[in-house]
Amino acid sequence: MGRYVLRRLLLAIPVLLGVSLAVFLMAAAVPGDPATVLAGDTASAAQVERIRHDLGLDQPLPIQYLRFLERLAHGSLGESTRTHREVLLEIADRFPYTLALTVGAVTLSTLLGLTLGTFAALQRGRAGDYLTMGFAIAGLSIPTFLIAIVGIIVFSLQLRWLPVSGAFSPASYILPTVTLSLHSAAVKARITRSSMLEVFGQDYLRTARAKGLRERVVIVRHALKNALIPISTIVGIQFGALLGGAFIIENIFGWPGIGRLATQAIFNRDFPVVQGTVLVGAVTFALANLAVDLLYAWLDPRIRYS
Amino acid sequence: MVIGFALFCGVLLMAAFAPLIAPYDPVAINVRERLAAPSLGHLFGTDDFGRDVFSRVVWGSQLAVRLGTLSVVVALAGGIVLGLVAGYYGGWVDQLVSRLFDLIFAFPSLLFAIAIVAILGPSLDNLVVGLGLFGCAGYGRLIRGSVLSARQREYVEAARAIGARASRIMLRHILPNVIAPVIILSATRFGGALLAGSGLSFVGLGVPIPQPEWGAIMATGREYLATAWWITLFPGALIAVAVLGVNLLGDGLRDVLDPRLRD
Question: Do residue A248 and residue B203 have CB atoms under 8 angstroms apart?
């Protein structure tokens, strides 16, 4: 297990380097000269030149990239062109909200998906199966932001049970987390159903039943644990989908996370902040996938010994 | 699958005959009739500039079909070329292309599109670029995997033995054999592009508001949720119907084309 963990950690390094290169090139790909934008309309050519020199933009790209990495290693992503604060600090203020929203949605959607998928598999071909899978395909098709809006109209504006926006009380977590998780719950319910049906056909289930184990033990300990292997891959991929989805949901609910920060930064052409949020998003996704792979190895001994 | 096909065709027909179906100009402003509730004159009501929401939604189907189709086409073209080349040649070419796919997959899908929009600016074409480039990696991996297994088959060896060129072997002998999963993936990606594109337009990172893109129409109604719900709910429902159509179609195609997955 130790060797597997080490190998997996080493494999993450080139991916993260690639991500840093892509994020660095993002800024280089933006049309227009950042020094001119930063200097403003009234600046003289000499002033623009000085800013360009200060930013290191007069250096060749590979040198600029090495400098970018060096700053990154010192925990600096540059400063926001709007607030002139260190980008990492801006992100640090907001990131916990995005993480709470995403982790909440991962947990809720996984619980919902496992329960509904297992139920549908047990009810295979009966009304319960059709009903659950009907809900699942609806969940896959209805846009998350439509669900968010209907949620706001019903629960915030009509019934006045939940706040419309912001993250001021525990109640304000309910609508964003639930709406964000529904699409992913539908994906997971469909995968759970099909991988449970696959497991139901296996010999070891018949053996477990023949041993006289109670049905609940057979389902949870023998069937579900094996079905979890393909499901855990989906949980990892879906983490990325939920993190991306949070970027939209945060804008609807006025959620103070990095998704809203990124959107505002794009509107303001505040590039260091855009770069920073994209980088943090990708790194978070990489770490989540790492965690899932380790979970995978724990669930499936064949992986850690191969 | 029949229902899915019908819904999908409905959207296509609406896009094709938008000028005949829509009673009003989708961008014509009529301040005297602003925020009018749904009625016989304005089936889906009007928005804050008095534009007819029904006409906007009907014209929006053109943008939706364009967004879905083009982003699938971009993804498919890039994915087929990269996947075939990587799988067929192997070695360092495969290494290079596969690492490129790894890199694209390192970004959460929406975040990738957001990054592209941040660089190029919000517009329909840039959404297509963002969603299409991300999709390349999905198709590319799928095709590369299929090519790797197909390359070992006798029919490819036979083609090579009679002196067929590499490009001919890839396009005529290998590609047709990996086409079924590609078609299934395309249905999913079409729906995914609609959801992602309209979502980004809704928050202002996609198609700009005066254009009748479904997500952009919904964005105009955000200020009026309590009073003029029709501006947001009707286009939202249309997105759901269109995506439901392609999803059902995709499920149906999977059952027909890939019998192993049928349960």
Answer: yes
CB–CB contact B114 A144 (8 Å): no
Residues in chain B: 263
* B126 close contact with A: CB closer than 8 A: no
- Interchain pair A146, B109: CB under 8 A: no
Query: CB count, 10 Å around CB of A15?
Result: 19
Min Cα–Cα distance to chain A from B89, Å: 23
> How do residues A128-185 score in pLDDT, each as one tens digit?
899 999 999 999 999 998 999 899 888 888 888 888 777 778 888 899 999 999 999 9
Q: How far apart are CA B35 and CA B38, in angstroms?
A: 9
DSSP state at residue B36: P
Q: Does B244 touch chain A (CB under 8 A)?
A: yes
Which residue, among B184, B59, B121, B106, has the nearest Cα to A271 in the 3D structure? Answer: B121
**Beta-carbon contacts below 8 Å between A and B:** 140
* Architecture in CATH of A93-299: Orthogonal Bundle (1.10)
Each residue's pLDDT tens digit, B198-231: 999 988 888 887 888 888 888 888 888 778 888 8
CA distance A154 to A168: 20
The per-residue pLDDT of chain A, averaged, comes to 86
pLDDT at A3 over 50: yes
How many other CB atoms are found less than 10 A from the CB of residue A3? 9
CA distance B33 to B53: 12
CA distance B155 to B173: 8
With beta carbons under 8 A apart, name residues in chain A contacting B134: none
Under CATH, which architecture does the B2-262 domain have?
Answer: Orthogonal Bundle (1.10)
pLDDT at B75: 94
Domain chopping of chain A, boundaries:
11-73, 93-299
Q: What is the 3-state secondary structure (H, E, C) of B176-221?
A: HHHHHHHHHHHHHHHHHHHHHHHHHHHCCCCCCCCCCCHHHHHHHC
- CB-CB under 8 Å, B229 with A282: no
* Domain parsing of chain B, residue ranges: 2-262
**Among candidate residues B21, B197, B46, the one with its CA nearest the CA of residue B122:** B197
Report the C-alpha gap between A26 and A274 in whole angstroms.
10
pLDDT one-digit tens code per residue, A33-44: 667 766 777 777
Nearest residue to B190 via CA among B258, B131, B129: B131
Per the structure block, which two tokens stand in for B214?
């479904």
B263 pLDDT tier (thresholds 50, 70, 90): very low
B42: alpha, beta or left? (left if phi > 0; alpha if psi -120 to 50): beta
Q: What is the pLDDT of residues B168-179, one digit of tens each?
A: 877 777 777 778
What per-residue confidence (pLDDT) applies to A143? 92
